[in-house]
Amino acid sequence: MSIRPIVVKIGGALLEAPEALDAFWKGVADLRREAPVVVVHGGGPQATALARRLGHQPRIVQGRRVTTELDLQILQWALRGELNLRLVAAALQHGLPAVGLAAADGGTLRVRRRPPWTIEGETVDFGFVGDVARVEPALLRHLLEGGYVPVVAPLGIDDEGQLYNVNADTVACALAEALQARAFLLVTETGGVHRNPDDPSSLLPHCDRATFEAGLRDGWIGGGMRVKLEVAFQALDRGIPEVHILAPDDLLARRRATSVVP
C-alpha cells in the first residue's frame, strides 16, 4: 500500500451516545481524505450489561476482563454480533463503505493463550484471553486498497482454531504496527488524559513516560486509561510516528487531545 493508513480505536460506550457517534463518523470521513482508515472497536460496557442480564458478573482486573467460557460466548454475541453491525450501519449512514469483521477473520490476528499473571500478590488466570502472536494484514490491505473502511471486533484465533478475547487497544496497536500506520488514535468519551477527570482545565496536551509513571504513583492514572497509555507507548516503540488520545468529535482538530510522546 502506497499510503500508510490511520488506525482508530473506539470504545463500545460510543454506541450509547448517538451525537458522539455521529461526530465520530463525520471525523472518519474527514480523515479518509488524508489516508485510508481502519476502525477497531471495544464493547466492554455492552458485554458487561449482557452478562448481568444473564445473571453473570464479569471480573475486571486492572482494566482487563477475565474471560471464562461464558464470558467468551457473551463477547462474541455482543462484539462481533450487535456492536459490529451497529457500527457498520452507522458508518454506512455517513456514506462510508464500512465492512465489519473480527480480527480472527482471514487469520488476521493470531494469538496464544495468556499465561497467568501475578497482580498485587494474586495469581490471575485470565481464561480465554489471547496475547498477540502475529498479524497477517493481507485481508485488511485488500479491503483498504478496495476503498473500504474495515471495522474490526477484537476477537483473535490461535493455530488450533480456538477463539480468544483480546484487549481492543492491544488489537488496534498490533494492526497499526503491521500496517505501518501513519497515526494511531485512541478515542475516549472524555477526550485526552486529565489529572482530574472533573476538571477540563487539567487536560494534559502531552504525556511522556515520566508523567505516566507519576500518574500511576499518585493515583490519577488507572484502570482503562492505564491500559490505553501502556498501549500508546508500545505503539511509539513499534514505530508509529503519531499517537493521540482524543474525543470522538476531535479526530482532526485535536483541540482536547493528549499527544503521547516518548
Number of helices: 7
Structural class label: alpha/beta
Q: Which regions contain 5 or more consecutive residues with pLDDT less than 50? A: none
Largest sheet: 8 strands, mixed
Coarse shape: globular
The CATH class: Alpha Beta
The order of strands across the largest sheet is: 5-10-2-1-13-15-16-14
As a percent range, the share of helical residues equals: 25-40%
Give an overview of the whole structure.
- By secondary structure, this protein is of the alpha/beta class.
- The chain has a single domain (6-260), classed as Carbamate kinase, CATH 3.40.1160.10.
- It contains 7 helices and 16 strands.
- It has helices at 18-31, 44-53, 69-93, 138-145, 168-178, 209-218, 223-237, and strands at 6-10, 37-41, 59-61, 64-66, 98-102, 109-113, 117-119, 122-124, 130-135, 149-153, 155-157, 163-165, 183-187, 206-207, 243-246, 258-260.
- Strands 5-10-2-1-13-15-16-14 form an 8-stranded mixed beta sheet, sandwiched between helices. Strands 3-4 form a two-stranded antiparallel ribbon.
- Helix 5 runs parallel beside helix 7 (223-237).
- The longest helix has 25 residues, at 69-93.
- It is globular, with a radius of gyration of 17 Å.
